[in-house]
């Protein structure tokens, strides 16, 4: 079986007459990809702008020349029941019992075999269905940039219904930096665009836009030294399924409008379904967030909530209390998740997305007080997680999610 990754796709590259198709991929419900091959390869001479590849799955031959890695007939299908734009999209499906391909449990396409320059742009739209992409505390990749050897030096990953960038650490190539990109929004399309200055040195950078809003401006290396420029893959790769089970046994996502280009493209060439926000939404150097125990009876702040803090109601003077998020003034919303320790670990008992100041665990009545509702916590051990966002919807994160445990007596 042969494949090529020079990606002769639609009208963006013209003059290529030889195309190889990779088998074991199902098209539009029932059509199977077949291997086709001819004798001649014409020289590619036409390039429109700097856009080197664009796939919207609307044509007769989607994924022309793209190398695909998947074990089952259901691993990749072009479907007509869901689309970002147009009528079709690609559905990637992976189960924990799938055979490994290329030494891994994966359903991916190799969009290119090597970046054409250091300055590159990439984009796609992705849809996470509620039924098919359930909560899993372990991670997987949905987009990765990998060099000639080793794991991906840069990838977009998910875990615990959150999205994050994983990039090689500037301090130690054997370690990773992780950067929170906010929650997965189920049953909705999300459009990502990436501007990457591929480099193993400090001049490297990664910029990320989510639904037209810039959410990341990272400076630092994103390649391993001495291994060349990376190739780009999209789809699902869950490496932990190579050797063990996890919370879920099925992962399914839909992708559409997969594109990449060189330094001659712009963000507007890639972002198609989003309202492009040219303002820089990224909040640089935010104030370090912290939680403060709020006495909701006297409407006053009491003490900082440090990890392992013991809260004595007798000292607080009331059992009517909340937790106040002391965050940067540019924060628009905060999400709280409260867990109580049980014999089977911590169990989620309360969640709130607070879209207005003051940001409080149990919310307020819209008049700015420290308490609303009838939430009274009993004695026991708890864990609280909170995350700050630059938008009211809670999509554009500011920093990482913060977690703290505490006891109530």
Automatic annotation (TrEMBL):
Source superkingdom: Bacteria
InterPro entries: Polysacc_lyase
Protein name, UniProt field: Polysaccharide lyase-like protein
Organism: Echinicola strongylocentroti
């Amino acid at each position: 079986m042969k494949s090529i990754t020079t990606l002769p796709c639609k009208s963006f590259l013209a003059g290529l007459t030889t195309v190889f198709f990779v088998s074991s991929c199902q098209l539009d419900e029932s059509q199977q990809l077949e291997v086709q091959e001819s004798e001649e390869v014409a020289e590619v001479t036409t390039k429109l702008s700097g856009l080197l590849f664009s796939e919207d799955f609307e044509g007769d031959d989607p994924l022309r020349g793209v190398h695909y890695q998947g074990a089952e007939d259901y691993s990749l299908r072009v479907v007509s029941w869901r689309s970002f734009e147009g009528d079709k999209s690609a559905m990637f499906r992976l189960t924990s019992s799938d055979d490994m391909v290329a030494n891994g449990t994966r359903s991916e396409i190799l969009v290119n075999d090597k970046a054409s320059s250091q300055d590159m742009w990439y984009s796609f739209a992705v849809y996470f269905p509620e039924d098919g992409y359930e909560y899993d505390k372990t991670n997987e990749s949905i987009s990765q940039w990998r060099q000639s050897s080793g794991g991906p030096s840069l990838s977009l990953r998910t875990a615990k219904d959150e999205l994050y960038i994983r990039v090689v650490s500037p301090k130690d190539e054997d370690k990773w930096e992780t950067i929170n990109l906010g929650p997965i929004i189920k049953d909705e399309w999300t459009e990502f665009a990436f501007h990457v200055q591929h480099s193993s040195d400090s001049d490297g950078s990664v910029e990320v836009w989510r639904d037209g809003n810039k959410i990341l401006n990272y400076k630092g290396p994103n390649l391993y030294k001495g291994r060349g420029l990376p190739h780009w893959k999209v789809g699902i790769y869950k490496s932990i399924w190579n050797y063990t089970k996890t919370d879920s046994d099925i992962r399914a996502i839909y992708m559409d409008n997969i594109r990449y280009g060189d330094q001659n493209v712009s963000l507007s060439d890639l972002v198609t379904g989003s309202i492009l926000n040219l303002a820089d939404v990224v909040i640089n150097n935010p104030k370090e967030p912290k939680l403060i125990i709020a006495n909701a009876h006297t409407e006053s702040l009491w003490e900082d909530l440090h990890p392992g803090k013991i809260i004595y109601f007798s000292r607080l003077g009331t059992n009517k209390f909340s937790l106040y998020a002391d965050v940067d003034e540019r924060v628009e919303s905060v999400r709280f998740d409260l867990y109580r320790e049980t014999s089977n670990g911590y169990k989620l008992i309360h969640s709130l997305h607070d879209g207005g100041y003051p940001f409080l665990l149990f919310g307020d009545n819209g008049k700015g007080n420290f308490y609303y509702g009838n939430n009274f916590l009993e004695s026991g051990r708890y864990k609280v997680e909170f995350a700050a966002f630059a938008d009211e919807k809670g999509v554009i994160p500011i920093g990482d999610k913060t977690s703290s445990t505490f006891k109530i007596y």
